[in-house]
Specification:
This protein has 414 residues and is an alpha/beta fold. The protein has helices spanning 15-26, 43-46, 68-73, 86-98, 102-116, 119-135, 153-161, 171-177, 200-213, 258-261, 324-337, 382-398; strands at residues 7-11, 30-34, 50-51, 79-81, 136-137, 141-144, 167-169, 188-191, 195-197, 217-219, 223-228, 235-239, 243-246, 248-251, 271-280, 291-293, 298-303, 306-315, 347-355, 362-365, 372-376. Strands 4, 6, 7, 8, 15, 16, 17, 18 and 19 form a nine-stranded mixed β-sheet that branches. The chain has a six-stranded mixed β-sheet with strand order 10-2-1-14-21-20, covered by helices on one side. The structure holds flavin-adenine dinucleotide.
Length: 414
């Protein structure tokens, strides 16, 4: 280890922690990443792999309030709140509804756009051209609606506001791209500027490999508590099998972040939106372009190890057991879109989206806590916003001019 370089510890080896670690390393830091799980052992493992650089639509949109009773009533709908968890989720849900006001939505969308439009550039920077070409396919994404639905007016207004290209597809155009699609699906929207990865797991693991190959360290430890030692003395990390000290610590622990911040008195409204996937190992259908089926809230992506249906939102505790039925129902949804699909025995998975009520991550400094930096809360868009977030946090740590304005992502906004 070069002892003349600053040393920084990053907590969390998901897409956000490893992107931050890599940008820090390349700007001259010795970096240690702490995580009890191997790289991509959290939400970064099983997501739908959509890199939505040309998407800037927050999750909470006008009209959400009226939908809450329906969500509570349908346990297999695209968004559910477990009734017994509802009182605990209520403060977060109220903030979420407040974020759906039109003027907030437009501001949030601007901040999402600033981050997301840098995504492919940052992935390219981190991976280099060969690994990028191997792992990321910039072929666009297609949004679909069953039963004649369509992009909402607000979604169209947001695309127009940011000059995002979107090409409507009629039934014939859809059938050329997806010859096996159900006859009832007749409308789609191609977003050509979006992309996807053939393997979220291998993509994020590759970030870890690049870090280690350049002298970084990833240690299999869990931080139990962050203890400030005062000023330049930095922090003591009480980990499960050792103690570590560092002048700078980045907290990138995804949905688990409140367990570390609450004891420091740093309050952020973070809720896990649990999501599921069904991975079909030997499908008889391959998608040239990934799709998201908007009315059912899931994505369908051909990956290197099969066809993945991933999505749905379940508001519940971090520690509650998965409800496998929510993963299984994805298979029924997929068969509605591709009635002739054969798949082999699917594998099921649940992951924890780290979600803020306003769909924006929490990035940057903590007031009165010099040396502590935050990088979490990417919700539905970590594979997209993770790399530009890592770059931004590294720039803030280095005192460099940030590539984008960090203000909208500050932890003080709540
Ligand atoms: C079903 C589903 C589909 C999705 N689809 C997409 C998509 O298509 N496109 C997209 O952009 N995003 C998608 N997402 C969201 C995306 O997966 C997340 O936003 C992203 O993975 C979050 O990354 P992260 O690094 O913050 O968290 P994680 O990947 O969860 O990593 C956090 C890490 O912190 C570690 N950790 C926790 N506590 C501690 C501790 N005390 N000490 C040390 N380490 C700790 C955990 O072990 C974990 O490895 C999807 C999510 C789900 C669930």
């Amino acid at each position: 280890m070069d002892t003349t370089r600053p040393t920084t510890i990053v907590l969390g080896a998901g897409v956000v922690g490893l992107s931050t670690a890599l940008y820090l390393q390349r700007s001259g830091h010795n970096v240690t990443v702490v995580d009890p799980l191997p790289p991509a052992g959290g939400a970064s493992y099983g997501n739908s792999g959509l890199i939505s650089s040309d998407t800037a639509v927050p999750i909470a949109l006008p009209g959400m309030l009226g939908k809450v009773p329906k969500w509570l009533a349908d346990p297999m709908g695209p968004l559910v709140v477990r009734p017994s968890y509802f009182p605990r989720a209520l403060p977060w849900l109220l903030r979420w509804i407040a974020a759906s006001r039109m003027e907030r939505v437009l501001k949030i969308s601007d901040a999402m756009r600033a981050l997301h439009k840098e995504s492919l550039k940052c992935w390219r920077e981190m991976l280099g051209p060969e690994l990028f070409a191997d792992l990321i396919l910039p072929v666009g994404q297609i949004r679909l609606w069953e039963g004649g639905g369509a992009e909402s007016t607000i979604e169209m207004a947001i695309a127009e506001r940011h000059g995002i290209r979107a090409e409507p597809l009629d039934a014939d155009a859809l059938r050329q791209i997806y010859p096996d699609i159900a006859p009832g699906i007749t409308r789609g929207l191609l977003i050509p500027g979006n992309a996807y990865t053939v393997s979220p797991q291998r993509l994020v693991r590759t970030l870890g490999e690049l870090l280690v190959a350049a002298g970084g360290e990833i240690v299999a430890e869990r931080t139990q508590k962050i203890i400030p030692r005062g000023g330049a003395a930095g922090f003591l990390l009480m980990n499960n099998i050792t103690n570590r000290t560092a002048q700078r610590v980045v907290v990138a622990t995804g949905a688990w972040t409140r367990e570390l911040l609450d004891p420091l008195g740093i309050r952020v409204p973070l809720q896990t939106e649990r999501g599921y996937h069904a991975m079909m190992p030997s499908p008889n259908i391959t998608l040239k372009i990934p799709m998201s089926i908007k009315n059912r809230g899931f994505g369908l992506t051909s990956m290197e190890d099969g066809l993945r249906a991933g999505g749905t939102v379940e508001i519940d505790s971090l520690h509650a057991a998965p409800n496998e039925k929510r993963a299984m129902i994805l298979m029924e949804h997929v068969k509605r879109v591709f009635p002739t699909l054969q798949t082999g025995e699917p594998r099921y998975w649940m992951g924890h989206r780290p979600s803020t009520p306003d769909s924006l991550p929490v990035l940057g400094v903590v007031p009165n806590q010099p040396g502590l930096f935050l990088a979490f809360g990417h919700g539905h868009f970590g594979m997209t916003g993770g790399p530009p977030s890592g770059r931004l946090v590294a720039q803030l740590i280095n005192g460099a001019t940030p590539a984008i304005d960090p203000a909208p992502y500050s932890c003080t906004r709540f």
